[in-house]
Automatic annotation (TrEMBL):
The protein's name: Sugar ABC transporter ATP-binding protein
A GO MF term: ATP hydrolysis activity
CDD domains from the UniProt entry: ABC_Carb_Monos_I, ABC_Carb_Monos_II
UniProt keyword annotations, A-Z: ATP-binding, Nucleotide-binding, Repeat, Transport
Signal peptide: none
Organism, as annotated: Acrocarpospora pleiomorpha
Occurrences of domain ABC transporter (ranges): 10-244, 263-509
Record keyword Cell cycle present: no
Lineage of the species this protein comes from: Bacteria, Bacillati, Actinomycetota, Actinomycetes, Streptosporangiales
InterPro entries: AAA+_ATPase, ABC_carbohydrate_import_ATPase, ABC_transporter-like_ATP-bd, ABC_transporter-like_CS, P-loop_NTPase
Domain of life: Bacteria
Pfam families, sorted: ABC_tran
Amino acid sequence: MANRAQTPAIRLSGVTKRFGAFTANERVDLDINRGEIHALLGENGAGKTTLMRIVTGLYQPDEGEVQMDGETIRFRKPEHALRAGIGMVHQHFTLVPTLTELQNLAMRPARIPWGNATADVRRRSEEIAATTGLRINPDRMVADASIGERQRLEIVKLLCRGARILIFDEPSAALSPGEWDELAALMRRLAAEGHAIVLISHKLTEVFAVADRYTVLRAGAVVGTGLVTEVTPDELVTMMVGGPVTERPVRAHVNPGRPVLTVRGLGVARDPLDPKSPPALSGIDLEVRAGEILGIAGVAGSGQNELVEAVMGVRPALRGRIELDGKPFEDRTPRRFYQSGGALIPEDRHHVAIVSGMTLWENITMRALRRPPLSRRGILNPAAARGEARRLMAEFDIRADTEKIPIGRLSGGNQQKAVLAREFTGHPALLIAVQPVRGLDVRATDFVYRQLGEHRARGGAILLISMDLDEILALSDRIAVLAHGRIQGVVAAEDATRTRIGALMTSAEEAPCS
Ligand SMILES: Nc1ncnc2c1ncn2[C@@H]1O[C@H](COP(=O)(O)OP(=O)(O)OP(=O)(O)O)[C@@H](O)[C@H]1O
């Protein structure tokens, strides 16, 4: 814990930030001390990211000031903040997938005082591995790393550049329980070494597991701050949403119907362009029936992405058979997948699910745009599409002043709700949901879980892929455990426990896909 008498690493005083008529942060006072993990909490759109973007120089405050070690600072660019030792681990990463991990580390913004020889970076990353246990895989292409592995690389990148104040924006979103434990231990070690850590998270269990202090934002303003040991989860939720949140509904019993997705003997190469590369998936057999949620449990990088890509036709299969709704699904393409009644809530929202420069209404109605009633004889009726978007905004509680806003300007949680609104439209026969509540606050998480439950009750088949074992256990009717590219076992919900699933996740042999 920090020495309270010391000057805070970061002090925000009366910080206000407006976007046009909208106030995203209102007179925020906040101290972040060296040696502490400070949880920044609030609903989707409460202003957490905006506030941290001010600290990291991405935005300028309209009023108020930011101090670092007692000195007023005004960073005009993120590089300035990084040079001063402030780094942010973003929800979406800033890595270049076509370069190796080491090459990514060696890339640097101008004027960071840090030797640019690759050998220096390699040595520095080895030092970081020795002190923090954070190991990278220097010669691997980032494109081949899982989201969890990319996150580790982001952290190493910031540490390589001398960051002393680290802001983690929902760091656990893609991590398995084991990886989260490692990250939590890392955060503690970094805090113990004198780093100041900000943790933006919607998961209160994590906050209680690692944080020393909390600050809650609601509608841009601070509504509570204090020691984590002096508050309860219910009190935090009440501060965040302004009232209690309803309990998640208990799983209703549904009798599964016809098989909607059948996968038999699926084998996929790691490198889609090289069939001789080691297998990413081997001998996969799966069945998802109407009215059932099949959960795929596994640590990040076990073959989840390859499975989704093979089913959707983004990645060729070396062998095996896939059927959709009882019919062979050959010559697979994403378009055919959608036309055959498939839908996808992808893990990587920024690269796959949304088109940032397009408006909210265009993003929400994208799947329905070419069909009546939004289009007639191929001609789009924009008024009808905007009306439909407004209806979905209300139904999915997407908070934006207007449907005409570019979707990239919405908070992460509101973007995710827009993706869900689009993908649930038209009641797809098969919904593939990958980490569907990533970045969502408690209330929105509740909403999505209910939507998934209702979709199942209406006879929809859901393939749920998540690194969050609690989520898999809470929602799935059956759980298939994926490790090293193979299904290690399928367990019915009533027989599934954390220990049993965890054992299947880790008991697998490394070969052949690691
Ligand atoms: N560049 C921008 N232009 C207009 N409005 C913006 C911009 N950036 C953020 N906002 C708005 O400011 C509000 C706060 O967004 P912010 O991303 O800070 O929320 P958050 O608390 O981080 O939410 P989440 O948990 O969903 O990530 C949102 O309503 C968002 O739409």
